[in-house]
Write a structure and sequence with these properties.
By secondary structure, the chain is an alpha+beta fold. The chain is 26% helix and 38% strand.
């Protein structure tokens, strides 16, 4: 498989809440996660992030995404994908009772590959804006 097809397969599995059980096939076992977002301050591994996303299925059962663009820099071993996360807070399990509010949150992922697998993932995201849209802040 190519870096782009692996990155897109991981992107889809992660964004649809498949969790680490599915996502790990495209990642180094110790893959690092970073984000400058308060909601993710305690998440430091890709495994932790994929599980965080899987837990969002409870309060956001219709979560999905719209891929806007993606690109690969083969020389740098890097994939960048820009998307819009979409969901409605209709399920229990969020920080407040279901609000019925809809989220449409722009974000980007940057994946750095080593030996054909994701070794580092960065999420670029305005979590405060998304939390206000959901009625969580």
């Amino acid at each position: 498989m190519s870096m782009k097809s692996d990155a897109l397969a991981f992107f889809d599995a992660c964004e649809t809440g498949k969790g680490w059980e599915v996502c790990q096939q495209w990642c180094q076992p110790d893959a690092v996660f970073t984000a400058q977002a308060d909601a993710l301050a305690d998440v430091t591994t890709v495994e932790g992030y994929t599980e965080w996303m899987a837990h969002l299925l409870q309060p956001l059962p219709n979560m999905n995404y719209e891929m806007l663009a993606c690109g690969v820099d083969e020389d740098a071993g890097t994939f960048v994908g820009a998307a819009v996360f979409k969901a409605t807070h209709s399920g229990e399990g969020g920080p407040v009772s279901p609000t019925g509010k809809t989220i449409a949150s722009d974000y980007c992922y940057v994946f750095r590959f080593e030996d054909g697998k994701i070794a580092h993932m960065t999420k670029i995201w305005n979590d405060g804006y998304a939390m206000r849209e959901a009625g969580w802040a």
